[in-house]
Every structure is written in C-alpha cells, then in structure tokens.
Automatic annotation (TrEMBL):
This is Glyoxalase/bleomycin resistance protein/dioxygenase. The keyword Oxidoreductase applies. It comes from Tenacibaculum holothuriorum. Signal peptide: none annotated. One of its GO terms (molecular function) is dioxygenase activity. Keywords: Dioxygenase, Oxidoreductase.
Length: 125
C-alpha cells in the first residue's frame, strides 16, 4: 500500500493554485474553480485542491513536505513572498522544520528528517 494522493479543501481554488505553484508544485489537472491537482517535484505523489463552501472547523490536517535542502528552500520561498509562521528549527524529535499556512489556513510543514523520519533512535521493532 502507498499513500499517493492528498486532497485539501479551499474557499478560493485559484488563490491556492498560485500559492502551491510558488511552492514548486506542477499543475496537472485544472477544473477551476472547482478542482485542481498537482504533482510534486520529487516522487510520485499528487496533491489536489477542491472547492468547498465552508472550511472544516478545528485543527484540521497538517501536510508535511520533505526537502533535503530545507534552509535553502525556505530562503527561495521567502523571496517569492511566502510567509512562514516558524522558520527552520531543529526539533527534539530530530527533524528540522519550517511551518506555514496556505491561503485557506491549512497547516504545512516543510522539513528535513533524513533517516530519522522512519528510523529514529526510539523506533520500535
């Protein structure tokens, strides 16, 4: 089994398209204003955005995007006008993370974990 597709809700799909293009995703399906789908620059995963009348309440979902050159990626995104709620920071769980929100308030975490993502020192067998 593989996770290959995540879909996020959006009030304004066109605004989300601009945001996710700035992040470096490639638009592959455009049924605006109702639905769009992106492929990620690395791997085989896709991310779609679908229009909703109202965003879900509560904490919602957090999407993680891993990049081996996290600090450089964050600098490039800041130059494109992307704002972060947390700049790259080393976490106690051995990941380096930067936090941001998409135009609809969906939480995104750009991170670098390397081997610690699936094999932290405290991994159970």
């Amino acid at each position: 089994m593989r996770l290959n597709q995540v879909t996020l809700p959006s009030i304004n799909v066109e605004e989300s398209v601009l945001f996710y293009k700035k992040l470096g995703l490639h638009l592959i399906v455009d049924a605006s204003p109702r639905y769009v789908r992106f492929e990620l620059p690395d791997g085989d995963s896709t991310l779609s955005i679908h229009q909703v009348e109202e965003l879900p309440k509560g904490d919602g979902t957090t999407i993680y995007f891993e990049d081996d050159n996290l600090d450089e990626l964050v600098k490039q995104l800041q130059q494109k006008g992307i704002e972060f709620t947390q700049l790259p920071k080393d976490q106690t769980w051995l990941w380096r993370e930067a936090h941001l929100l998409d135009p609809d308030g969906n939480k995104l975490i750009l991170f670098k974990a390397g081997e610690n993502r699936k094999n932290p020192p405290w991994r159970i067998n």
